[in-house]
Amino acid sequence: MSGFNLQGALHEHAEAVAHVADLAPQLEEAVALIRAAFATGRRLFVCGNGGSAADAQHLAAELTGRFEKERRGYPAIALNTDTSALTSIGNDYGFEQIFSRQLEALAAPGDVLIAITTSGNSANVVAAVERARDIGVHSIGLLGRDGGACAELVDIALVVGVPRTARIQEAHVLILHLLCEGLDA
Known about the structure:
Strands 2-1-3-4-5 form a five-stranded parallel sheet, sandwiched between helices. By secondary structure, the protein is an alpha/beta fold. It has one domain (about 25-185): Rossmann fold. Helix 1 (about 5-20) packs across helix 8 (about 165-185) and helix 5 packs parallel to helix 6 (about 125-135). The radius of gyration is 16 Å and the shape is globular. The longest helix has 20 residues, at about 165-185. The chain contains eight helices and five strands. It has helices spanning about 5-20, 25-40, 50-65, 85-95, 100-105, 125-135, 150-155, 165-185, and strands spanning about 45, 75-80, 110-115, 140-145, 155-160.
């Protein structure tokens, strides 16, 4: 295990979690925004690439199923799960449009988009946030490092300002669970 520094990794993890604690006001605002959308019959869309795509699916599953307590299922859709849509849109319009094109087809004013990108600069996620704004869809960014381009575009930026992708992703899962807990409350 040469080169592996467990204590250093745990310290980095604790630093990322500390960033989440600093986001409490934005987290409460995000919960209120999503709760209001659900109360008026609106939907939540989530998107991301790679590990962030897995996080998008994770959140949608927690909301359509349940997190910890019994409640009605919430209308949450991970835009990265429909392989036919992803491949046809990617083929016909380019990979940068795989999420924005789906939003154009499925979203309506008052819906909410959670855009997950550790860099804040994933072209297809940025395009989704821009399309959401055009449609009248509210947006929340789960971002990392300095928030990238998305930080300036989203309505609520949840930025985990640490350099390592793995630590950002660990903090993003915590944020997703805190959102679920807030919606369950």
